[in-house]
Design goal:
477 residues; Fumarase C, Chain B, domain 1; 19 helices; 64% helix; Ribonucleotide Reductase Protein R1, domain 1; Fumarase C, Chain A, domain 2; mainly alpha; 4 strands; two-stranded antiparallel sheet
């Protein structure tokens, strides 16, 4: 069926239904109505002339939202909050006189933003914990498997497949610490009035400051929060929006780096992301197995990282108690930042649930480089057997150059081991040399580091969040 309007791919292709619903109109405007109910309940409890009948009418119509009427009212008023006040009032004629009593627009807008962001952060945390769980299993499974380590993308000392993956895991652990902190940082705007002074509520309650304070506490409690910001202008400080998007950016940075590594390793055929039977890697080259999931993560991660700047600039350019140039950018940046972060975490869980390790290819690459790396150990072993260190060094230097020339100029196999076994100066058999350069002898404490990091850092997190474990991830494309 043809479509004649732009459709956001974050919703149609990438993000989960759960996250997409959270930032839907129904979720947003029903939350506005819940806030109006909480305000009316609090005001009634503190003595204002509001009836149970009015409150019950409001509760009964929280999800009875006439979106077409609200759109017509917004076109008429050029004000979204007042459009929904009137729409709600038409559905609740008895309660209409007391809906939004004493409040400013930001009572529903900012408090709803805080509520939705906090819920969204918990969804992101849940997926992050599940990714940490899946990746930690991979780290432990491959903690002992030697592989070439690289610095400057040049072969360096050996590491293990699990140790390399534990570096990825450590970045995600840092992201976990950050999102836990930011979740605690997000509070309600509260019941503060037009410029944050609570003047309108002081008027409602005849300058009874204790009742005004109590009203805010009641609303905060009714909305399931522990606290509101002590101070606001018309809005809560936009630094909170920045820290939220910064946290999402941190996750994106981690996953971009991880998937860059996977793409490099898949090019070398050492590691491959899952590839389904009917999946097509290239429309032209039928043999190809492109790392499309990792590439998608990298692409969406760049969007998330660039999105962080939107809230940094918005925070920096707010005037005095408030300007409206924060509104349109927040409608875009916050929901889309969460939708994209939700998507990359889901894809990453899918990747690590089926990541393929080609141990024979890894061993082949080790064999091509390790003899050169192990020459110092061979020298020391030969000295133990009575050799002269200086003569051994010169002999191995010459043989290494000869073998390297065969590899670089003629594309032949590294034959350094064979050359050294024939040397009368080195005086070691092939078997003795191979035992000396067993890859497992060159990974240091990599396996132990993986186990220690898991036991001391990751396992407590997984135990603390065991109720979050187990998410179903389905990629739509």
């Amino acid at each position: 069926m043809p479509r004649d309007t732009y459709e956001n791919p974050l919703i149609s292709r990438y993000a989960s239904k759960e996250m997409s619903y959270l930032f839907s109109d129904e979720s947003k405007f029903s939350t506005w109505r819940k806030l109006w109910v909480a305000l009316a309940e609090g005001e009634k409890e503190l003595g204002l002339n509001i009836t149970d009948e009015q409150i019950e009418e409001m509760k009964a119509n929280i999800y009875n939202i006439d979106f077409e009427l609200a759109a017509r009212k917004e076109k008429e008023f050029r004000h979204d909050v007042m459009a929904h006040v009137h729409t709600y009032g038409i559905a609740c004629p008895k309660a209409m006189p007391i809906i939004h009593l004493g409040a400013t627009s930001m009572y529903v807008v900012d408090n709803t933003d805080a509520i939705l962001m906090k819920k969204a952060l918990f969804l992101i945390k849940k997926k992050l914990v599940n990714l940490i769980s899946v990746l930690s299993e991979f780290c432990l499974e491959y903690k002992d498997m030697p592989t070439l380590g690289y610095t400057h993308y040049q072969p360096a000392q050996l590491t293990t497949v699990g140790k390399r993956a534990s570096l990825w895991l450590q970045d995600l652990y840092i992201d976990y610490e950050e999102i836990t902190h930011v979740i605690d940082m997000v509070k309600l705007r509260g019941v503060k009035g037009t410029t944050g002074t609570q003047a309108s509520f002081m008027s409602l309650f005849n300058n009874d400051g204790e009742k005004v304070n109590k009203l805010e506490k009641l609303v905060v409690e009714k909305m399931g929060f522990k606290d509101a910001f002590k101070l606001t202008g018309q809005t809560y400080t936009r630094k909170i929006d920045y820290y939220v998007l910064s946290t999402l950016s941190g996750i994106a940075q981690s996953l971009h780096k991880i998937t860059n590594d996977i793409r490099i390793l898949q090019s070398q055929k050492e590691i491959e992301e899952p590839f389904e039977k009917s999946q097509i890697g290239s429309s032209a080259m039928a043999y190809k197995r492109n790392p499309m999931r990792s590439e998608r993560i990298a692409s969406l991660s760049r969007f998330i990282m660039s999105n962080e700047a939107n809230m940094a600039n918005t925070t920096a350019t707010q005037w005095l108690e408030r300007t409206l140039d924060d509104s349109a950018i927040k409608r875009l940046s916050i929901p889309q930042g969460f939708l994209a972060a939700d998507a990359i975490l889901g894809i990453a869980i899918n990747v690590f649930s089926g990541l393929v390790v080609n141990d024979k290819v890894i061993q082949k690459h080790i064999n091509e480089e390790l003899p050169f790396m192990a020459t110092e150990n061979i020298i020391m072993e030969a000295v133990k057997r009575g050799g002269n260190r200086q003569e051994l060094h010169e002999e191995i230097r010459v043989l290494s150059m000869q073998s390297a020339e065969q590899v670089k100029k003629f594309g032949r196999q590294n034959d350094l081991i064979d050359r050294m076994s024939k040397s009368k100066i080195i005086n070691m058999s092939i078997e003795e040399i191979e035992e000396t350069i067993n890859p497992s002898n060159y990974v240091g404490r990599a396996p132990q580091q993986v186990v220690e990091f898991y036991n001391e850092t990751i396992k407590p997190i997984l135990e603390e969040n065991k109720d979050m474990l187990g998410v179903d991830v389905e990629l739509r494309v």
